[in-house]
Design brief:
Structural class: mainly alpha
Low-confidence stretches: 279-283
Mean pLDDT: 83
Largest sheet: 2 strands, antiparallel
Radius of gyration: 23 Å
Order of helices and strands: HHHHHHEEHHHHH
Strand content: under 5%
Strand order of the largest sheet: 1-2
Shape: elongated
């Protein structure tokens, strides 16, 4: 993330310099997504799902999500171009970028029917992105860090200590304390959304099988890249295994579960993206 503008500039120039960066557009997109989610949430709890404002808020939230991930993908492409790096793996390597995956899913949800659960993972990401940008860029721009007294016993040539904002420190503690828990919640929501789409497909709702196929590919990629998704799937699998092992469970149900689990394992092995990327062992890029 780019550093905030120089503290020697006047406040108006610092704000103008900050607003002219792509990073600020990224921040504005995440902030817009949060406002739209809040507005849509109010419509949802009052059972006004399909009013004009509800539809506008839902669609705008995914427009904002697509814009934010599009900015990250563009910045990554521009950085590679400037560095003269060659693309490795072609389209499959691009598909392995988490930001590309979330960009594509934001576009899919934008043009699909409303599914309130789909907006929640993006919202959780946006909460942490807005918090981080506020702490590292917005607060230092509005209130530059002040130089504190030298540490006791420090040499005269030592750099003076800077005193950070208490609000920035509080935000930093919040992000550090709740990040892992929130990413686990994102994994749970993404898995729950898959089951929601399975239910729609079973009922043969219009376009449900196509949407399920696209989202299944997305979840497969998330499972390959996210330890949080892996842990959530293992946890859910262990719970179903325990239920299936219960003596009260009919043998037919137990056999169905074993068949389903075996089929999922085979599908997992057949869709290992590492085989097609070339096994470079590169760590996937974190969603931003």
């Amino acid at each position: 993330m780019a550093p905030p503008p120089s503290s020697t500039l006047p406040l108006s120039q610092r704000l103008l310099s900050l607003a002219q960066t792509l990073q600020f557009g990224w921040f504005a997109g995440h902030l817009t997504l949060l406002f739209c989610t809040l507005r849509y949430g109010l419509s949802w709890v009052t059972f006004n799902f399909y009013t004009r404002w509800a539809r506008f808020s839902y669609r705008t939230a995914f427009v904002a999500a697509a814009a934010t991930y599009g900015i990250v993908v563009y910045k990554g492409y521009r950085a590679r171009s400037r560095g003269g790096a060659r693309q490795q793996g072609g389209a499959m390597a691009l598909a392995g970028d988490e930001n590309v995956q979330y960009l594509l899913m934001a576009l899919v949800w934008l043009f699909s029917k409303q599914i309130p659960l789909a907006i929640l993972p993006f919202t959780i990401y946006s909460i942490f992105h807005v918090a981080t940008y506020t702490r590292t860029n917005l607060i230092p721009t509005l209130q530059p860090p002040q130089q504190g007294a030298p540490a006791p016993g420090a040499s005269p040539s030592a750099r003076p200590q800077t005193k950070s904002s208490p609000l920035a420190d509080t935000i930093g503690k919040f992000v550090k304390e709740y990040y892992d828990t929130s990413m686990g919640l994102v994994a749970l929501l993404e898995v729950a959304l898959w089951f929601r789409l399975v239910g729609s497909a079973i009922l043969f709702q219009k376009g449900s099988w196509i949407l399920l196929g696209i989202y299944t590919a997305f979840v497969r990629a998330r499972y390959a890249q996210s330890s949080f998704v892996q842990n959530m799937v293992r946890h859910l699998t262990a719970r179903v295994d325990a239920q299936a092992a219960n003596q009260s469970t009919p043998p037919a149900a137990r056999q169905v579960w074993e068949t389903v689990k075996g089929g999922i394992r085979q599908a997992h092995d057949a869709t290992d993206i590492g085989r097609y990327v070339g096994g470079t062992g590169q760590a996937p890029k974190k969603a931003q």
